[in-house]
Write a structure and sequence with these properties.
Layout: E1 4-9, H1 16-24, E2 42-48, E3 51-57, H2 67-83, E4 86-92, H3 99-111, E5 115-120, H4 128-133, E6 143-145, H5 154-162, E7 177-183, H6 189-197, E8 215-221, E9 224-230, H7 243-258, E10 261-267, H8 274-285, E11 289-295, H9 297-303, H10 307-318, E12 327-329, H11 338-352, H12 358-371, E13 376-377, E14 380-381, E15 384-389, E16 396-401, H13 409-422, E17 431-436, H14 443-446
Parallel strand pairs: 1-3, 1-4, 4-5, 5-6, 7-9, 7-10, 10-11, 11-12, 16-17
Antiparallel strand pairs: 2-3, 8-9, 13-14, 15-16
């Protein structure tokens, strides 16, 4: 059975492309504060809680502007609407309800598809009731407030998308470990590929930017199939001088999204930079495991006193947002440190596939929450009822609670840290999804809170 199809529909400049980018974890759709920027249907794939789905970002449907242009855009959007299984109807909470919203709602209703109406640009929880009030005129069955810019409401939107789609929860791959080698130009990425493979499979040159495309090289080691991806060097935007380099950067970003493990290569003589930190942030946005590879140690150790100590201090400062980032020191040119690097890759692969039984993770959570109770929300204690591991990679966990908005980012980081320490997942970007307890009868709704003292 194919993946469920989701269409994002709305008039121009209500935030559809921002929502598309956030759901897909990409920047495929151009976002600009003026109407009519999206002129075609952008298609992407996304995943939430292990459920995979297709999503369409349609152009803003408007009855104004150039007549022929508007008709074409409108027809494309309505075709996507007809093809969709579910619809996200986006409205503008700052501008308010207007005749075009009403007209479009009539077109959506005709299709008789499940619809979630989302009133965007409502930035504060306290403003929700007022912000939604005038939109009830449309007689919407399912409406919620959101702020795409601040990702407020994004988890509830995703929960609605995947509801009833448990059939698509398997990890989609071919059993091969995909390793993307990324970093700034001339950091030694291609040399590292050749060192791992033991042969000159990619071009190596002292000229920065020699690799302008992503090169995929399959190989087998210890009866395990791998694919090494040597990407073009990622420069800062201001230093991308031509069209080819822009395409290379885009393909490198694609490689990051498709890989299981990223080796981020840093020139040991120069040390990690802000651009390297941005690459790590991009990897974490895609929930990819990362190894920071400090290259050229043969030269760096001879030129920089206490090289490793100095490097670790720079790493702590530059990657403060990822305190447990795995680090390996190598010389890709001589092969020194490459075998320990590959051993680390295999260890991380094992961690990425770690499974924890439901009983074990709930017993562990019970003790953690008793020691550090979760924050309250609007004066009400936030209670955990049940937690289970999803079928995603890296390991991810769904926690059923009475109020997901009470699980702050800080508290989620605290829980993630505790899980990492307990189950040998340090350095793995695990995820915790708070989800509202189901109100209907079922095992989750009948459970008592994990912490009886809450």
């Amino acid at each position: 059975m194919g993946l469920i199809k989701i269409a994002i529909i709305g008039r121009p400049n209500v935030g559809k492309s921002t929502l598309f980018n956030q759901i897909t974890g990409t920047r495929k759709a151009v976002v600009k504060d003026e109407p009519g920027v999206t002129r075609d249907v952008h298609r992407g794939k996304a995943e939430w809680l292990g459920v995979h789905f297709d999503i369409f970002d349609t152009a803003g449907v408007s009855e104004g502007g150039d007549k022929a242009w508007s008709v074409g855009i409108r027809n494309q959007a309505l075709k996507a609407l007809r093809d969709a299984d579910k619809v996200l109807f986006v409205l503008d909470g700052k501008f308010g309800l207007n005749p075009e919203d009403k007209s479009l709602w009539q077109q959506i209703k005709i299709q008789k598809k499940p619809v979630l109406a989302i009133v965007n640009k409502i930035d504060e929880y306290e403003d929700e009731d007022v912000g939604l009030s005038e939109f009830y005129e449309l007689d919407l069955n399912n409406v919620m407030a959101a702020s795409f810019e601040h990702k407020h409401g994004l988890d509830r939107i995703l929960d609605w998308i995947i509801e009833g789609q448990e059939r698509n929860t398997e990890v989609l791959d071919d059993g091969k470990i995909r390793i993307a080698i990324v970093g700034k130009p001339n950091a030694g990425k291609s040399t590292l590929v050749n060192s791992i493979l033991g042969e000159n499979r990619v071009v190596v040159s002292p000229v920065a930017g020699t690799t302008v495309d992503s090169v995929e090289v399959p190989f087998t080691k210890n009866n395990q199939e791998f694919i090494l991806i040597d990407t073009a060097g990622l420069r800062r935007r201001a230093r991308r001088n031509d069209h080819v380099e822009l395409i290379s950067a885009f393909k490198a970003n694609e490689s990051i999204a498709e890989a299981n493990i990223l080796l981020i290569v840093v020139d040991g003589l120069l040390g990690p930079s802000q651009q390297d930190a941005r690459i790590v942030e991009l990897a974490l946005e895609h929930h990819r495991a990362v190894i920071l590879v400090i290259n050229k140690i043969d030269m760096a150790e001879s030129k920089i006193p206490r090289f490793r100590d100095v490097s670790r201090e720079k790493i702590r400062n530059q990657f403060h947002f990822f305190a447990d980032i795995p680090v390996c020191f190598i010389s890709a040119k001589t092969g020194r440190g490459v075998d320990p690097l590959f051993a680390l890759v295999q260890k991380i692969w094992s961690q990425l596939n770690k499974k924890i039984s439901t009983q074990e993770i709930n017993d562990f959570f019970f003790n953690v929450i008793r020691q550090a109770p979760s924050p309250s929300f609007r004066g009400r204690d936030t209670k955990f009822y049940y937690i289970t591991q999803t079928k995603q990679r890296p390991p991810s966990f769904m926690a059923f609670v009475n109020e997901p908005r009470g699980i702050t980012k800080a508290y989620r980081r605290f829980l993630s840290t505790q899980i990492k320490k307990q189950y040998d997942l340090v350095g793995i970007p695990i995820r915790i999804y708070p989800k509202k307890r189901r109100s209907s009868k079922g095992s989750q709704s009948q459970r008592q809170p994990l912490d009886d003292n809450q």
